[in-house]
Amino acid sequence: MITKILIATLSMAGISGLLAIILVIAERYLANYGECKITINNQKDLIVKGGSTLLSTLNSQKIFLPSACGGRGTCAYCKCKVIDGVGPLLPTEEPLLNKQEIENQIRLACQVKVKQDMLIEIPEELFNIKEFETRVTLIQDLTHDIKLVRLQLIEPYEIFFKAGQYVQLITAPYAGVKESVSRAYSVASASHEHDHVDLMIRLVPEGICTTWVHNYLNENERVKIIGPMGDFYLRDGEGEIIMVAGGSGMAPIVSLLEKISKEDIERKVTYFFGAVRKKDLFYIDEMRNLENEIGNFTFIPALSAPEPEDNWDGETGLITEPLDRYLSRSDNATSQAYLCGSPGMINACINVFVKHGITRDRIFNDPFA
Amino acid sequence: MEGLSPWVIFFASIFTGNILLVYFLGMCSFLSVSKQVKTSLGLGLAVVFVLTITSALNYIVYYYILEPLNIEYLRYIAFIIVIASVVQLLEMIIERISETLYINLGIFLPLITVNCAILGVSLFMVIRKYTFIQSVLFGAGSGIGWMLAILAMAGIRARLNEQKIPPALRGPGIALIISGIMAMAFIGFSGIVQIQ
């Protein structure tokens, strides 16, 4: 009996062991891409271990490409030029690149894998993106589903960003989520305050990062951020600045307004903010203060479906409606538009702006990815 | 099954004894990956590869290890271990050769491990007492038959997208009805040759 059990166990162990050895050998030769050299802008050489994506390989070398979706291949911010050392375009990249970009050898760093020596080009300013160790000093409810999170910088202790740019927040593993993810949030604090950043985070049902922030993150905890990133910032010009935001899209607009206030920029500023009910509105007092501080600034909140008990006497309807009415009365020849909100809202607003003669080159937006 | 020509088994396993449409094995990936012809071709080729290799390896494992040691009852575990390793190996090869195919197959590549068609072929090979050559051709034929069925299904489903289907039947519902009709069509081949 014992010998029978022994034979059975040993033979199964033998088969498994043999197959495991074959797999280990195969892994050594097939899945081992060895050390690869990544040459950036023909100046900098990095020696890295091959096998992972270009984005995470560069991250491990402290070079941070912008990424809002955290490597899932949806935001297309991690575009970079790969001149040599990469396979053909992948099906996951195709929908996110236009024809011109494909011709220019632009690829998504989060999809491309490092398998051999590579020659890539990335913009110089990306070398300024750093990883910051921070401490949560304030978590405050702005509305029933939006929280303000203040992060005090520890190391490095200062951040220099353009008002309107965003940072990536790295989550810690919690409850059932074992991996940490990174998500992008616009900085809501003023760009002349270098020692902290404020983020406005709306709870997304089943969102990995937003659930963590809303239900698990506490004051005094340490979190990591990477930034600053993004090309949503105030452009030079003379004409009116028209801003449109919805929900937590308020964040970068606050930062832009703080900059306009601080630097005494003497341009006409009009800000449309869309919400559903009165309980979705926030920062009203701050906006009224800014109206006093900035010479020519008007804040126009609009509710799309006010409750009867809201006693709302302001603008109603989707944000595009008051915007449309406003633009048909104003001179739009030199105006610039700054939009932040859901892709649906942004596209609807772009149509309104274009209809009233504000061309695409004067519309700047920051869609939630 | 000594007398049967391996080639008869090969063709019979493609048409008359189609592993998918006659034995209804490997339905899960058949239903979920058959949305595009391109990906189903990729998965089909992977199944052909895995089936051919595993039926050869499992033949050796069964007749040279399990049977002499009188531990045939462990064949389920042994077969699954062999299948899992071959799929792992295949995954590494595909990732090295074609990143595009690797991404297209996605999660379904590792899922071949639990594709019951693969284990089914190895078990049939034992039950029907095939010789080595017969087993390999039976594996290859079953794989090709599976690929043929999923390709046909993908072709039909591509056209289904433009048809008006009652809402309750959309997706898996209509796919199951169609596979039933396809199975009936394959019965038409059964007069040619029988292998059991």
Provide structural commentary.
The complex is a heterodimer of chains A (369) and B (196). Chain A folds into three domains: 35-126, Roll (Ubiquitin-like (UB roll)); 129-229, Beta Barrel (Elongation Factor Tu (Ef-tu), domain 3); 241-367, Nucleotide-binding domain of ferredoxin-NADP reductase (FNR) module (Rossmann fold). Chain A has eight helices and 17 strands. Chain A has helices spanning 2-30, 54-60, 99-103, 208-216, 250-262, 284-293, 320-327, 343-355; strands spanning 35-40, 44-49, 79-84, 106-108, 118-121, 130-141, 146-155, 166-170, 182-186, 196-202, 222-229, 241-246, 269-275, 297-303, 315-316, 336-341, 363-367. In chain A, the strands form three sheets. Chain A has a six-stranded antiparallel sheet. A six-stranded parallel sheet of chain A has the order 15-14-13-12-16-17, with helices on both faces. Chain A is globular. The model of chain A has no long low-confidence stretch (mean pLDDT 88). Helix content of chain B is 69%, strand content 0%. Chain B is built from nine helices and no strands. In chain B, helix 3 (37-66) packs across helix 4. The chains are: A alpha/beta (369), B mainly alpha (196). The A-B interface holds A 4, 7-8, 11-12, 14-16, 19-20, 22-23, 26-27, 30-31, 87-88, 90-92, 111, 113 and B 61, 65-66, 69-71, 74, 77-78, 81-82, 85, 88-89, 92-93, 95-96, 99-100, 103-104.
